[in-house]
Write a structure and sequence with these properties.
The protein is mostly beta strands and 335 residues long. It contains 1 helix and 18 strands. The strands form 3 sheets. It has a 12-stranded antiparallel β-barrel with strand order 3-4-5-6-7-8-9-12-13-16-17-18. A 4-stranded antiparallel β-sheet has the order 10-11-14-15, with no helix packed on it. It has a two-stranded antiparallel sheet with strand order 1-2. A hairpin with a 6-residue loop joins strand 1 and strand 2. The radius of gyration is 23 Å and the shape is elongated.
Length: 335
């Protein structure tokens, strides 16, 4: 007598989709630091009410020509709602970035580097993903006289540690990789009912290229093939700046901003895995997300313009009930 058995294999795709969440938060935080300078809002000169000139953007570390050293720290929490085939994701992330730049003749160019971490917990105790990155890049900011164009590129390592809960046993995997992301931002100062405002639009792409791996710690581990993740991010905002001069000649600037931030999948690979001799291939893309946001920043620039410091915060809400809360501090000094 021959006895035959069969078994069903089911794999939750949420752990694979989680890297897109981590990548999106990382790229947005980096480019916000680059675009915003220390003021937390697109840095450009804004029309000064009641004067014929302009007030330089407060908090950009000694506005005008010269070299500047700057540093920033950021962190936040993000909730991605689940869908029909994926569990929800809780993302806690943070990082530090520092750079040096030089301004001359209406343009600014600089280089930067940093480190960031993300911890992503999957709902229903399905597992977690830790995503670490060391990165560096360069940027070029061009002032045309009527609007600014910021061009930036960043690349870095991507180290991913995954934990998958299989019947109370942890299946662990490690994967290395790298990413690259270019960005372009257009910033335009204008007036609205005699009030200075700054409008900006940013478009960025990010490509993440992960090596394959085989899990450990379980009897039937997953063997995961190499996988590429591609995302497109767009951000449009209106910023209302309030410049206040101190009695000693220092400047304080308060920024209020609101806008739309959206992330789209741009052709990511399916997840191709083998488990128990069975080959599986399934979509692990994130759902496209659109969020509205509001934020504020307060920035201080010393009387000589040599030093500046700022603190900012922003809250985003997606149309499916998710959210993101982000904070940043930044300082800059001219030398």
């Amino acid at each position: 007598m021959t006895r035959s058995t069969c078994s069903a294999v089911a794999v939750d795709p949420t752990g694979f989709a989680a890297v897109g969440v981590a990548l999106g938060s990382l790229i947005s935080s980096i480019f916000n630091s680059i675009d915003n300078n220390a003021s937390g809002s697109p840095a450009t000169a804004v029309p000064a009410r009641g004067t014929a000139g302009v007030i330089p953007a407060g908090g950009d570390g000694a506005y005008g020509s010269g070299r500047r050293l700057w540093g920033a720290g950021f962190g936040g929490k993000q909730k991605v709602e689940g869908s029909s085939n994926q569990a929800g994701i809780d993302n806690r992330f943070g990082g530090a970035i520092t750079g040096v730049e030089n301004s001359s003749g209406g343009s600014t160019y600089g280089v930067f580097g940093g480190y960031a971490v993300s911890n992503l917990d999957l709902e229903f105790n399905a597992g977690e993903v830790d995503f670490d990155s060391t990165f560096g890049g360069a940027y070029w900011k061009i002032n045309t006289g009527t609007f600014n164009v910021n061009l930036a590129i960043v690349a870095g390592s991507a180290d991913q540690d995954t934990t998958r809960n299989v019947g109370g046993i942890n299946a662990r995997g490690e994967s290395d990789g790298w990413f690259i992301s270019p960005s372009v931002t257009v910033i335009a100062p204008m007036e609205f009912y005699a009030r200075p405002v700054i409008a900006s639009v940013r478009v960025s792409y990010a490509g993440l290229f992960l090596d394959g791996y085989t899990e450990t710690g379980v009897a039937n581990p997953l063997t995961v093939n190499d996988r590429d993740v591609h995302i497109l991010n767009t951000r449009a905002q209106i910023n209302v700046p309030y410049n206040m001069a101190g009695k000693d000649g220092s400047q304080t600037r308060l920024d209020l901003r609101a806008g739309i931030d959206a992330q789209f999948d741009a052709g990511s690979d399916n997840a191709a895995v083998v488990v128990g001799g069975t080959a599986l291939n399934f979509s692990a893309d994130l759902d496209n997300e659109v969020a509205g946001f509001i934020g504020t920043t307060i920035a201080y620039t010393s009387v000589s313009g040599t030093f500046s410091f700022s603190a900012s915060g922003e809250v985003q809400s997606t149309f499916d009930g998710g959210y993101k809360a982000i904070g940043q501090v930044r300082g800059a000094v001219r030398f």
